[in-house]
Amino acid sequence: MVLHVLRALFVLLMAAVGYFYLKVSWLTMAMGMSLAVVFICLDILSPRRKLAIFAGTFFGLLVGIALAYALSFAVIMVVDQAVQLSPRIWTPEERTDIVQFVNLAIGIICCYLSVSFILQTKDDFRFIIPYVEFAKQTKGARPILLDTSVLIDGRIVDVAETGIFDTQLVVPRFVLDELQTLADSSDHLKRNRGRRGLDVLSKLRTVRRADVAIYEATRETESEKDVDQKLLSLAKGLNARILSNDYNLGKVAQLREVDVINVNDLSGALKPVVLPGERMLVRIVKPGEEAGQGVGYLEDGTMVVVEHGRQHVNEEIEFTVTRALQTTAGRMIFGRMADAQGRPPRPRPRPDTHSPAAQNT
Question: pLDDT (tens digit, 9 = 90+) per residue, 124-136?
Answer without folding.
Answer: 444 444 434 434 4
